[in-house]
Every structure is written in structure tokens, then in C-alpha cells.
Write a structure and sequence with these properties.
The protein is built from eight helices and no strands. The protein has 210 residues and is mainly α. The protein has a domain at 23-146: Serine Threonine Protein Phosphatase 5, Tetratricopeptide repeat (Alpha Horseshoe).
Length: 210
């Protein structure tokens, strides 16, 4: 089983929350985060949804909601949510963390090839992300284990060699047949010759005069 490092989580005070939000929205996110930390993920999901009903562009709520989807085994929903957060219009740090978390989710889904590319995307944005690099190496190692080793094929005889071999075999068969035919003809000649000799002796014999 592939063991990956934990997914990232955003708090209100994180540096990528560049958009100002109301005190009420902050309080709602903090409450949702508490529910998440208490592993009350169903309630946390509902709380983040309420934040997004009030502020649909709140990236902190979107990011942590994506994590909540993952915790509730809604991995496809989590991937879709992280896809939105990795779009070009988002801050680079948010995109990098979203790529990282998406890579973890994909790896847990055994989509190793996709997770490898996603960890690479995270490292392009932040080459110093050691967790992304470690998870990339783990995913690559796991994918290599799952791929069967290449089969060693026995060398097939070349067409020319095979043709030459068939020609030699055919030639040998023809020679053998020719030899047998010659032996039969020779025996037949010997039999005819013997019969002729016997006939000649019989015709040259003179009856005795008693």
C-alpha cells in the first residue's frame, strides 16, 4: 500500500489568503476548521458549504472543503475541487499546495501516472517542496513495481536463413529420391540381363542324336 505524506490544510491566517473577508466569514471558517480537526467531517463539509454560499470565491473554504471531500472518501469531488484551485488565475502558493494535495488523492486512487504528473506540477511551482518530492519518488517507485518486466523473446530465425534451410532440406530429399530411383533402375537392368542370358543359353542347346 502506498504510504504518502499528509495533505496540506489552510487556516485563516495563512499567507495565501490575500482576499479580505468579513469577521463573520472568518468566524464561520474557524468553526468549520474546528469541526475538521475534530474529525467531524460531515459537519465540517456543511459548514464550509455555508461559507461558500456567503462568499463563493473564498479560496480557504474551497481548499479545506476539498480536503473534507477527501476525508469523506469523496475523492472524485476532491480532485475536481483541487482542479479549480490549480487554475492559472489563482495565487502561485495556493496552486502549488492544491497540486500537492491533488497528487495525494490521485495516488490513493491508485492513479499513479496522473499523481506523478501532479507532483511534478507542484515542484515546478515550488522546487523546494520536500514533501512533494518525497511523494513523487514514492509514486514512481510504486508504479515501477506494478509494471511487469519486459518479456525476453527468443530470437526468431531470419527469413533468409529459414528459406535456405528449407531449400537444403528439399535438395536432400530430391537427391535421396534420385538415388533410390537409380538403384531400382539398376536392379531392373540386372534382372533383364539375367533373363536374356538364360534365354540365349536355351536357344543354343542342340538335341542329342541317340
Amino acid at each position: 500500500m502506498l504510504s504518502l505524506n499528509k495533505i496540506s490544510f489552510l487556516f485563516i491566517a495563512c499567507s495565501i489568503c490575500i482576499k479580505a473577508v468579513s469577521q463573520d466569514t472568518n468566524s464561520m471558517i474557524q468553526s468549520a476548521n474546528e469541526l475538521y480537526k475534530q474529525q467531524q467531517f460531515e459537519k465540517a463539509e456543511a459548514a464550509y458549504d455555508k461559507v461558500l454560499e456567503k462568499d463563493g470565491h473564498n479560496t480557504t473554504a474551497k481548499f479545506n472543503l476539498a480536503n473534507t471531500y477527501y476525508r469523506r472518501s469523496k475523492k472524485d469531488d476532491a480532485v475536481k475541487a483541487f482542479d479549480y484551485l490549480t487554475s492559472d488565475g489563482q495565487p502561485a502558493e495556493l496552486r502549488e499546495k492544491s497540486f500537492y494535495n491533488k497528487g495525494v488523492v490521485l495516488a490513493k486512487q491508485e492513479k499513479l501516472a496522473e499523481s506523478i504528473e501532479t507532483f511534478k506540477d507542484a515542484l515546478r511551482l515550488n522546487p523546494n517542496d520536500t514533501l512533494a518530492r518525497e511523494n513523487l519518488q514514492k509514486a514512481m517507485f510504486e508504479l515501477k513495481k506494478k509494471q511487469p518486466p519486459p518479456k525476453k523473446e527468443e530470437p526468431k530465425p531470419k527469413k533468409q536463413d529459414q528459406k535456405k534451410q528449407n531449400q537444403q532440406q528439399s535438395k536432400m530429399n530430391q537427391q535421396e529420391a534420385q538415388q533410390r530411383l537409380q538403384m531400382m533402375e539398376q536392379k531392373e537392368k540386372e534382372v533383364l540381363q539375367r533373363m536374356q542370358n538364360e534365354k540365349s543359353k536355351s536357344s543354343n542347346t542342340v538335341a542329342k542324336d541317340w
